[in-house]
Design a protein that fits this description.
The protein is α+β, with helices and mostly antiparallel strands. It contains 9 helices and 12 strands. The strands form 2 sheets. It has an 8-stranded antiparallel β-barrel with strand order 1-2-3-4-9-8-7-6. It has a 3-stranded antiparallel beta sheet with strand order 11-10-12, covered by helices on one side.
């Protein structure tokens, strides 16, 4: 492994060549790692370490970082069975994690300190990976502990590594296939025996159910037609038909339009009551994609690009958090923004925006923002 062949051919008592940094000892009975490329609700990479009879697992949206010091968010997910380490194929739609799975990389891992479970509990793992694609040192550092999913950073330690080509990134180390080929061939399935019970999955299914239930209720058109019949007038402004109490006349035939609006609002309020309750939480924002030309089809719009810090403001009553798109806490850096959010006219919300500093001409200035940050 690694420098074994190099060392076998040399006598370091006779040569001044470097022997190389000694690797930490292998984890007894469990030193396998796998990375699976997973196209589920969104494309991500599942980083797994065999440990304590299971696969300790993290979902890494951006995959491995390659540049020294580069950090990518890694969200800790539930342990997986060791049998899953060799799986490549399809998880059927409707089951937990439904989508296409590629065995993207596999190999052995080593942990400095040689006590992986203890390091895992402390929230800091210094790893050496020896895979078919990933070779080198990385670190897993826990940054936030939560009831369900702990957030970690996957950091590239020591030297930078040249990123993989697009072709190699979309190639299985098990079969050489692409994600598209794996999805088309469907030669293996993993039955999780679980429906998609993720927060997003439950929320979406309950919204669909609420909307379906609302669609079965009395049509708003019928309500509008009934009220229009009551409010019809003759050419002298006298009410005709129905026995409703007299109503003041409105200009421009506004009765039908107004009653339609009221009925729609009533329907909407009833639908809101059926929607599930959920606590506001950080949602990783979508990033812009570089393109040569704007799209020619669809209902597209545009917005100005400000030069500042992308941030999500999470408001729950009087509690406000500011979180960067990488999951870092920003409230202590920009307390005035967080305090201003307390006056936002919503009890609970999540806002995606840009923290900017404007110069005298009203233009965003990143340099000015840095100056404000240093002064604060």
């Amino acid at each position: 492994m690694g420098l074994t062949e190099y060392k076998r051919k040399r006598d370091f008592n006779k040569t001044a060549e470097p022997a190389g940094k000694p690797l930490p000892k292998a984890v007894k009975g469990a030193n396998r790692f796998v990375i699976q490329k997973h196209d589920a609700s969104r494309l991500h990479y599942d980083f797994r370490l065999e440990m304590d009879g299971v696969l300790k697992s993290w979902a890494v949206p951006k995959g491995l970082p390659w540049g020294q010091g580069e950090k990518h968010l890694a969200v800790e997910v539930e342990d997986h069975p060791v049998e899953y380490a060799t799986f490549e194929g399809i998880i059927p739609e409707g089951q937990y994690g439904g989508g296409t799975v590629m065995l993207w990389d596999q190999g052995k891992y080593y942990v400095y300190g040689e006590k992986p479970l203890e390091s895992l509990e402390k929230g800091r793992l210094h790893l050496v990976l020896d895979g078919k694609k990933a070779k080198g040192e990385w670190a897993l550092i826990r940054i936030r502990r939560e009831a369900e999913k702990n957030q970690w950073l996957l950091l590239k330690a020591t030297n930078s590594i040249k990123p993989l080509s697009k072709k190699l990134d979309d190639q299985s180390v098990k079969t050489g296939r692409t994600m598209k080929e794996i999805a088309a061939e469907r030669d293996a399935e993993w039955q999780s025996n679980r429906s998609d019970e993720s927060t997003a999955g439950k929320f979406k299914s309950r919204i669909r159910a609420a909307i379906a239930s609302g669609a079965k209720s009395k049509s708003p058109k019928k309500k509008v037609l009934a009220r229009e019949k009551v409010n019809r007038r003759d050419n002298r402004g006298r009410r005709v038909g129905g026995s409703a109490a007299p109503q003041p006349a409105r200009r421009g035939g506004g009765d039908a339009k107004n009653t339609s609006s009221v009925a729609a609002q009533e329907e909407f309020q009833q639908l809101l009551k059926k929607l599930p309750a959920a606590k506001p939480r950080f949602v990783e924002p979508m990033k812009a994609r570089l393109a040569q030309d704007p799209p020619t089809a669809g209902d597209w719009s545009y917005e100005l690009k400000f030069d500042g810090f992308r941030a999500c403001a999470v408001k729950d009553g009087t509690k406000v958090n500011l979180v960067s798109r990488n999951g870092n806490e920003l409230r202590t850096r920009f307390p005035e923004v967080a305090d201003a959010m307390k006056d936002f006219p919503a009890e609970q919300c999540v806002l995606d925006g840009e923290i900017v500093a404007l110069d005298k001409e009203g233009r965003s200035s990143f340099q000015l923002l840095q100056g404000i940050e240093m002064e604060g």
